[in-house]
């Protein structure tokens, strides 16, 4: 199969190299018709090139499910088990961020109580009776993946209502195989597919690009009870890459590693979703290498 594809590519390139001669010899063919044929051939070459990328990635990636998609036209570059549901861990926080931005004033201050601080994922800068803006809770949730920050945003509206809004939004976006059980992703019942998460990332990029911007930040600080400023470390190692345009990582032992992000590859915005990955950094490196 691969040898056939290379043969077609070689023949196609040969066509382009003799393009001027063909124009001179084709007295019966108009320039417009020839241009149309060239455009059709260019599309076919692109399709074959993407097919080669897809074949290589299918052999190299170790994710249970993945989707690589060109944002400009939603063209799928490579995919595997895109409709298979998996627990999504902290990728849940992307939908949390959408609901928070659409239903809570970012400058609204929220006083933290015991119920808000119950989830695992404690931060010394989020403590009982402290007052934090919704904007800063959102940053804590997205940057350091702090679960009590996510819970605090949900609790402010009413946790049950907040999670209901998350599921309602999923339906609006056509995420038919997605279900949110909580606001932070600790439960294995938070499940989705690579296909559905690509829809969510697409919506975020178009309507809430500030979410992606926050996920690239590694300079966010809040005071602890003594007033000492503490840094929220960005848990997404991809923020260091110049190609990283934003997104979220997730991890639970049972869910393995996950990712839903946007990268700038060769001047194109590309959505990458990985679920149930043994090594998401290695998978992303392979995707970037194959697309460059």
The gist of it:
The chain is built from ten helices and eleven strands. It is of the alpha+beta class and 292 residues long.
Q: Percent helix among the residues?
A: 40-55%
Cα radius of gyration in angstroms: 23 Å
- Major β-sheet profile: 5 strands, antiparallel
Q: Helix count, per DSSP?
A: 10
**Structural class of the secondary structure composition?**
alpha+beta
Question: Could you name the CATH homologous superfamily of the largest domain?
Answer: DD-peptidase/beta-lactamase superfamily
What is the third-level CATH name, the topology of the largest domain? Beta-lactamase
In terms of quaternary structure, what is this?
Answer: single chain
- Using DSSP, what is the number of strands? 11
Distance between the termini: 23 Å
The name of the CATH architecture of the largest domain is: 3-Layer(aba) Sandwich
Strand content: 15-25%
Count of structural domains: 2
Low-confidence runs of at least 5 consecutive residues: 1-13
Gross geometry: elongated
**Helix and strand string, N-terminal first?**
HHHEEEHEEHHHEHHEEEEEH
Mean pLDDT: 87
**CATH C-level class of the largest domain:** Alpha Beta
Give the strand order, joined by hyphens, for the main sheet.
2-1-11-10-9
